[in-house]
Amino acid sequence: TTKMVKICCIGAGYVGGPTMAVIALKCPSIEVAVVDISISRITAWNSDQLPIYEPGLEEVVKQCRGRNLFFSTNVEKHISEADIIFVSVNTPTKTRGLGAGKAADLTYWESAARMIADVSKSNKIVVEKSTVPVKTAEAIEKILSHNSKGISYQILSNPEFLAEGTAIQDLLNPDRVLIGGRETPGGQKAIKALKDVYAHWVPEDRIISTNLWSAELSKLAANAFLAQRISSVNAMSALCEATGADVSEVSHAIGKDSRIGPKFLNASVGFGGSCFQKDILNLIYICECNGLPEVANYWKQVIKVNDYQKNRFVNRVVASMFNTVSGKKIAILGFAFKKDTGDTRETPAIDVCKGLLGDKASLSIYDPQVTGDQIQREISMNKFDWDHPVHLQPMSPTSVKQVNVVWDPYEATRDAHGICILTEWDEFKTLDYQRIFNNMQKPAFVFDGRNIVNIEKLREIGFIVYSIGKPLDPWLKDMPAIA
Ligand code: NAI
């Protein structure tokens, strides 16, 4: 045990970067190299401007970088030197071919596995960190063993449960660490080696070991359950608006039941992020492939309700504003898929903005962590439609021109007819709404897609306010939205 353990992580993204930084922080005796084929990402990891925004990340990276944490594009060298290789590459939804619109695209994973097989000269533990379909470990094992040159590989599944925006806290203090492996002596030995890494800071009773398939499926199941909670409360929010119930009161009341629990029960404009939709689609595909259409349809509904919620929001905006937003300036506050991240993958803001642009609105967007370039790219990109994989919805160049990104919320809202709050950034709670109101067109509308504003206060100022799942402003009752 005098030899220093070496870890290599393939993929320096939202998962690979923070995860390895925390391992390096907590295990000074382990050398951690994070490698990526993207030169710009690695350059950013080695600079003062890290490629991702995550509270607390910079401090951890600064403490370890150059000591026992390295970011490099020399993929081959670090793979060949490592004892344990984490694979944390992206696994997006396939957009064409077999399973398009649902199945996970394992191209990046397969190329990482082939690279490992090519350059390895000693035995390796290969850890699936990416979220992958159940049974992927079997495929990886085949690729490695058919190209093995006498080297032995152990595959482990160690899915990551961190949430963006709280990644460092989640990694420092995880609810659990899950490690799946083969039930053979070799498999058990590999599990033990990975356990020893986490045991540097995670209490032993929080490190769970299972068989490979349970570990792989647990990640998909966890995301499906989490997203299902959001779609459930969002479905309730529509009924609240129709009946005069208040979704926050309902959430509070049901969350007191210890079997339900209080967390993750906020109604909103919908869930986003790179994982929930992708992982549920993946789950649906696996169910269909296993001849379980009823199970597939059950989970499909979670995504359908999410799409419904985004549409419903757009319809509310348009209907409230006399059924047209054509030529009207609408301020969008928040574009990231949640607060404390700059990540915009699958953010509900994309669909809301596209919906409003479809009605010819002119948008002025402000987000404290997202650049104009990134917003323009997201909005002009042809979004892949999971429900109708053959149809793409191209954005016309003229509607993209209707998007203006600014660095100040007061500028975004100046002369606007309405404001849509799409991310729950804390700073939106304390804006000077009187000042904003004074500079807007009248009637002035606030559509709060995250239920963060003080409705009463805003109504006193003179705003017409829509909050998801809350008793409707009399104005909105007179302008029914047909969703
Ligand atoms: P990401 O897209 O931010 O990072 C993936 C990185 O892998 C990219 O920088 C890419 O250049 C690199 N890469 C791809 N192929 C490569 C190769 N052959 N060799 C070297 N580098 C390669 O993705 P992210 O968000 O980090 O997700 C990674 C995986 O973790 C996905 O499977 C995702 O589902 C899963 N996951 C993501 C979470 C999140 O919050 N983002 C949370 C838990 C799991």
Automatic annotation (TrEMBL):
Q: Which Gene Ontology cellular-component terms appear in the entry? A: nucleus
Q: Name one Pfam family in it.
A: UDPG_MGDP_dh_N
Residue ranges that the Swiss-Prot or TrEMBL entry lists as coiled coil: none
Q: What is its EC number?
A: 1.1.1.22
The UniProt catalytic activity note for this protein reads: UDP-alpha-D-glucose + 2 NAD(+) + H2O = UDP-alpha-D-glucuronate + 2 NADH + 3 H(+)
What are the residue boundaries of the UDP-glucose/GDP-mannose dehydrogenase C-terminal domain, all occurrences included? 331-455
One GO molecular-function entry? NAD binding
Report the pathway entry. Answer: Nucleotide-sugar biosynthesis; UDP-alpha-D-glucuronate biosynthesis; UDP-alpha-D-glucuronate from UDP-alpha-D-glucose: step 1/1
Q: Which residues bind NAD(+)?
A: 11-16, 36, 41, 89-93, 130-131, 164, 275-278, 345
Q: What is this protein called?
A: UDP-glucose 6-dehydrogenase
What does the record give as the organism's lineage?
A: Eukaryota, Viridiplantae, Streptophyta, Embryophyta, Tracheophyta
